[in-house]
Automatic annotation (TrEMBL):
Biological source species: Propionivibrio dicarboxylicus
Domain NAD-dependent epimerase/dehydratase span(s) in chain numbering: 3-214
InterPro entries named among the record's database cross-references: Epimerase_deHydtase, Lipid_A_modif_metabolic_enz, NAD(P)-bd_dom_sf
Top-level taxonomic group: Bacteria
Name of the protein described by the UniProt record: Nucleoside-diphosphate-sugar epimerase
Pfam families associated with the record: Epimerase
Amino acid sequence: MNVLILGGTGVISREIVRQFVSARHDVTVFNRGNRDPGFGQAVSRIVGDRSRRSEFEDAMRRTRYDVVIDMICFTADDARSTIRAFSGNAGQVIVTSSVAAYKRPYRSVPTIEDQEALWDDPGFPYAFHKAAMERVLWESIRQDHLPITVIRPSLTYGPGAMNIGVLRQNYGIVDRIRRGKPLVMFGDGTTPWSFTFVPDLAKAYVGIAGNPHTFGQDFHVTSEERCLWNDLYLEFGHLLGRTPEIVHLPSELLRIAAPDLCTHLYFEKSHSGLFDNTKLRSVIPDFRADVSLRDGLRAILNWYESEAHEVDRQKDDLEDRLVALHGAFSAQMAAIAAGNAQETK
């Protein structure tokens, strides 16, 4: 197949490119050309900026691809632009959304695509815009019968990822465990979650591409390994040979302290993150998410160790302050408990 990938340089999209190349498809990437995807002559490149709508759409209308994979569609305007650019000149358009676009609380657990509604609260902008993007796509699917497929990944990790940890501390997680510094977890850390790793997500794109049974359909693609949020830090600790100290704070307080980092915890991650891949397996019967949390984090740790990584000092200082507040609050609660004990004597 002749495949165009809008993006192609991010952690997820690079792996998608790699798997399509390995499957011997002809791959072209479209992006601003700021980063080399690292595939040499195996991948064709188009340099451009999709935010320049007219220029982007005019250029794309002069092309023809069997499959277009849009990894950089985030808003309703982006979706309209994609539709204008590829209506009539693409055999299939796969658009990447997110499980964040589902309305919470879920109607089904494990979550099933056809039982869910789309997010409608602007208080969580990422989810709000992804859901608005999807509504544009679904309207075009209904009215124009366009061959569009929507994929909703969950939180996806892999070497190169910069979204690892409750505060997106990334390498800071390893540093804090090694130094014996506590790590902050939202809630009590027992919210179920399926941590998905890049190779598993990418192989779903390859399986969906060119499959007519996926046209006009939506699929979430996640691991089905049942973990708890605490397990993220406990597994890093296992790999490092040290048991991490974890302190727990409510997600609504973390959101107040660091809204840019923690809004998603309050609106999204505090709800069960378990997803049923039955619909995906109905079109890719042999699909399995094979990378376990331990194996995925081992790959990330190896990446950390093979390259020079620095601790984000602002996030590290924030985590220190949050840990200190947790300690002060715990001391106050202990004082209240002691006072109550005295009164009952």
